[in-house]
Design brief:
heterodimer; A: about 650 residues; alpha/beta; Rossmann fold; GMP Synthetase, Chain A, domain 3; 9-stranded mixed sheet; 7-stranded mixed sheet; 23 helices; globular; B: about 260 residues; 4-stranded antiparallel sheet; 11 helices; AMP-binding protein (chain A)
Chain lengths: ~650, ~260
Amino acid sequence: MTDTTAGRDRLDTFPKLLRHNAKAFASQVALREKDYGIWHPMTWAEFDQKVRTRALALRDLGIGRGDVVAIIGDNRPDWVISEIAVHAVGALSLGLYRDSLESEVAYLLTHSGTALVFAEDEEQVDKILNLGEAAANLKAIVYTDPRGMRKYDDPRLMKAEELDAAGARTARQRPSLYDEMIDSVSGEDVAVLCTTSGTTTHPKLVMLPAGRIIDHARKYLQFDPKGPDDQYVSVLPMPWIVEQVHVFGKALLCRMPVSFPEEPETLMADLREIGPTFLLMAPRVWEGIAADIRARMMDASWFKRRMFALALSINEKAAARNRRSWLADFLAFRALRDRLGFSRLRSAGTGGAALGPDTFRFFHALGVPLRQVYGQTELMGTYMLHRENDVDFDTVGVVIDPAIEVRIEAPDRQGVGEIVTRHPNRFAGYFKNEKSTAETMRDGWVHTGDAGYFDDKQHLVVIDRMADLAVMASGDRYSPQFLENKLKFSSYVAEAVTLGKGREYISALICIRYSIVSKWAERKQIPFTTYSDLSANPAVYRLIRDEVERINATLQPNQRIAKFVLLYKELDADDGELTRTRKVRRSVIEEKYGQIISAIYAGEPAIDIDTVITFQDGTNQRIRTRLKVETVETGMTGASGEQAA
Amino acid sequence: MTSPLLELSNVSLQFGGVTALSEVDLGVEEGELYSIIGPNGAGKTSLLNCISGRYFPTFGTISFDGRDITRLRTDKRAAIGIGRTFQNLALFGHMSVIDNILVGRHHLVRNNFLTGSLYWIGGAQKEELEQRREIEEIIDFLEIQHIRHATAGTLPYGLRKRVELARAVALKPKLLLLDEPMAGMNLEEKMDMARYIVDLNDEWGITIIMIEHDMAVVTDISSRITVLDFGKKIAEGVPEEVMAHPDVQRAYLGDDELEEA
C-alpha cells in the first residue's frame, strides 16, 4: 500500500479511491475492454474523468442521496463507470443479472423504488419498458448500445453519450462540484445493494456500505496479495458480491488492471489474449472447461491422447509425493495451459457452489492453482479461503482475517451444525426488510443457514443448506446437495436432483451432459437425434447406471440412490428450475415433475411423458416420450424388495 | 414520383427452348424489403441472377439507380452497389471468417499487389486497419465475434449463412439480393436471421430483395411481395393482398384443392 494511514481513512468510498489513483497513477492502465476485435486500455485518469462527467449528469437529472440506480448488462467498463458515478452522487447502486427475467427485474425495480436504470442494449431496455406503470419512480433509462432502439419513443430513454455530454457541460461550468459531492459522502453510507440468490423466495437486497467493502478488500489483499502487476479478467456476473469486491474493492486498492471479455462466447479466446494472473469463475465454468478438454482429447490424434494420458499418470505419481512433475508439464500441460490462456495464472478461485474433487485435481494436475472460496453476500462474499500451500479439495479453507469469527451452532454428534459468523465488515441490513435482518443477524452473529463442520485441520467443511438437510421416512438424515454434487462430479452428468425427504429410499432425476454424452455416443456408434432421444437411449442409461453404482459404493446403504430417471430436457433458469447463479430450485422441480416423482415412488417401471417445452424465443415444442425408471441395487431392504415385485 | 432504385421492364430469359422468365416487370423502391416468392422452378433465382448479372436477359432491360445495367458485368455491378448471397453457400471454406468477409471489400481497396508489398510505406497497413475496422462493425452487428478466426468450412450451417451475409454486407451495397437466407435453418436461427435482415434494412438503410420460402417470415417482414409462377409475375403487392390473391392460392395449392375448399 502506498497511502499513509491518515490518507487511508479518507479513501473510504470508490469515487475517492478512484480520484486518488487518477492523481497518483494517472497513466497506468486501470481497465481494458475488447471492442471491434481490439483491446482498448483505459488509464486511471481517463477512468476518473468518465466517472466525473457521468456523476455530474446524474446529479443534473436529480439523482442524489438515497436514490437507487439499477444497472443491467454484460460486464463492461461502462458498468464500472456507471456504478462509481452513482456512488459519487450518494445514491445506491443495484446490479441486476443480465439474464434476469422480466418478472425478476420488475420485482427488484419496484421493491427498491429505482429512480434510474443503466440498461446496456435493446434486450435489457425491453424488460424495463414492459414494466409500464409499475416503475412509477423511474425517471430515466440510459442505454449504451443504440441498435434496434429506433422503434421506441419513450421519453425516459436516453443515450449514454447524451448523458455524458450534459455532464461534461456541467463539469466545465462548475469544476469543483464533483469533488465537493464525493467528499460529502461517507464510507459508512450504504452504497451497494446486492441481491441474495433467492433460492426459495424473492431475492432480498443486502445493504453494503462502501467503506466496509473497501476494508474487507484490504484485509483480503493482506491474506492473498495482488498488485498492479496482476491481470484480472472479469468473468463472474458483475451484480454478484464476489465480483463487486474484486472489481471495485480490490482493483481500486491494489490497482490490478481489470479486463473485460468482448462477449461471453469469446471468453476463452479473450483469456488467451490477456493471459490473466488471477481468475475467478463459477464452478460450472471450470467444469465446462474441464469437460471441454476431455471432449477435445477424445477427438485428438492417437499420439496426443497417449501423451496426455501419460502426463496425467506421471503427474499423479508426483502429486502423491506432493510435487509437480516437470516431465508431465513438458509433455502436455504447458501447451495445454497456453491454449487455455492459463500460462501466467498464479491464482484462481471458484465459489458459489461446490466444485468436484475430480475437477479440482484435474486443474491442479494441469498446474492451475485453483482454490475454493466461501462466504455470503451479507458478509462481503468471500471470507473463507485456502492458504496457497494448504489446499484441500473437500473444504473451503480458513478465515482470511483473524477478526472474523466462525463457529458451529448447536452441533450434533458429528459436529455438524449451522455456520454462524461474526464479521467486522458485515452488511448494514436488508433493504426495506427489518424482519429478515433481525432473523439473520442476532447479537452481531450472522446465521448463514448453511450446515457444516470443522475438520481436524480446522478447515471449514460446508455440507448443505440447513433447511435442505432432508429426513427420510426412517428418520435418517441425508444431504441432497451432497449427493447431487457427487453425481454432478461425473463428467456425464450435467444436473441432478435427489428426492428422499419423507420417503423410504432416495431417487434421483438426472440430466445428462450433452456435450460429453453425445461424443461418447458417437464413439460407440450409437445413433441419436436430439437431447431427449439421447437421454432415453438404453446404452446411455447403462452408462449413467455405472456412474450411480460407482457413487453408491462410496456411501452408506441408507444414503444410496435406489432409482433414477434421465430427464428429457436440461434444467434451465428460464423455466424457473434454476436460480440465476444456477442453483436448483427444489420446490419448482418437485411441482413440475411431480408426475414423474410419484410414478417413481409408486414403483412404476416407466412413465409416459407428453409435455410442451418453451424455448427462449417463445416457440414451443411438444415432447412425447417414455421415461424408464432405472432401479439400482442398494443393499437396503426397502427398495430392493420393490425391485423384485 | 421518382423512378425506383431497381427497375426491370419486360425481362425475359430463355435457355434454348425453355423460358425461365417471361415479360417480368418489377420496380423496387429505395429502402424497401422486397420479397420474391413462388413455387419451385418458378424462376426466382433466375430473376435474381439477372439482377446480379450472372445471366443476361434475352429480352428486356434492367436499370439500377437510373442507369441501364442490362449488359453490365458482374464485378461492375458489385462496384455500383449490388451485393448478393447464394442459395447454396459460396464461402471460401479454407479461409478464416475475417478473410472471407474481407473479400467482400475487395473492390473498395486501393492498394494492389505491388503497393501492398511495401506494407508500411505504401499506406497498405493503414488501409488494412481501416478495412478491418469496417468489418469488425459488421461482425459486431451480426454477432459472430466468437468465430472471427475460425475456418469458414468448419462452421455449422447457420453460422456459415451469417458469414455469407456478412461478406455481402461488407460490399457496402445499396441493394442486397438474398437467395433463401433462411433455408435449412432451425426456428431460432431463422428468428435471428430475420432480425438481422430487418435491422440491415431499417438501420443500415440497405434495400433488400429476398427470395424465401418461409411464408411466416416473408409476410412478417416484407414491405412488398412479388409472386412468380412458371416465369410469369402473377401478383404483386403488400403481404396481405398477395396472400389473398386467387392466382397465388392456385399456384401454391393447385386448382383441385382450391375448388374443394
